[in-house]
Amino acid sequence: MVHNYSGETIQFQITYKKRTTIGITMDHYGNIEVLAPKGTPDESVIQLLEDKWELIQQKSKEQKDRLLGPQKKVYEHGESFLYLGNTYPIRIYHDINITQDNVVFEGEKLHIYVKQLDDEKIKQALKRFYYKQCKALVEKSISSYQSNYKVKPRSIRISDSKSNWGTCDSKLQLTFNWRLAMAPLKVIEYVVVHEMCHMVHLNHDRSYWRLVGKIMPDYKEQEKWLELSNWKMTI
To answer: What InterPro entries would the database entry show (predicted)?
Structure first.
């Protein structure tokens, strides 16, 4: 079906099922499907689509962006980067008198101070910022959740892994990916809980997941964020 709303064309499919409420789903390509109880008037479906149109547009853009994959960043004023789950524009300052390139998050912007206007220098300054923030956030989370465990990590390090958000080895050494600083705080906490639970259960058996669920009942929501958003976590 097709419906015009606020100058936009909404294309959607209605599937009638044995259910009590109307639901809206979207596939990986941004195609909209409305799941409705049998006998639902078209007017009710259209009203829901109009009420949710802003959210639908946002989700559709996210799906299409995901299909395109990570886009090459441009290190100029206004380019956006993720930090704690939100995107913020960067502002670049060229100052030959500073002792070291650095990044400061302030006023809803990532302010980048560099001695030399060079893309690689800006990128490395951002990377150091994420490393530093990740270490502080991880250590704070470990401290917050430590009371749930009888054992403590022997060491905590931040890495540049291409395949893992975090690891725990048999020596209770915890390692975390610096890109976690781009994720929401709750997601960071989940990865911390995930790895700390490996201090008790090294594998992913049933006992392990029971412990994770006991400490963080909504952990699947945090896993879903990582699954849907990891392609955006790049500099």
So the answer is: UTP_pyrophosphatase-like, YgjP-like_metallopeptidase
User: Among all chains, which residue has been given the structure tokens 């524009």?
Assistant: 89
Q: What is the pTM of this model?
A: 0.73
| Total H helices, total E strands in the chain | 6, 11
106 vs 202: CA distance, rounded Å: 40
Pair of tokens at residue 62? 């996210």
Each residue of 87-97: pLDDT tens digit?
A: 999 999 999 99
pLDDT tens, position by position, 11-60 = 888 999 888 999 998 876 678 999 999 999 999 999 999 998 888 887 77
Domains of the chain: 2-68 (no CATH), 146-232 (3.30.2010.10)
HSE-up of 154 (CA within 13 Å, CB side)? 7
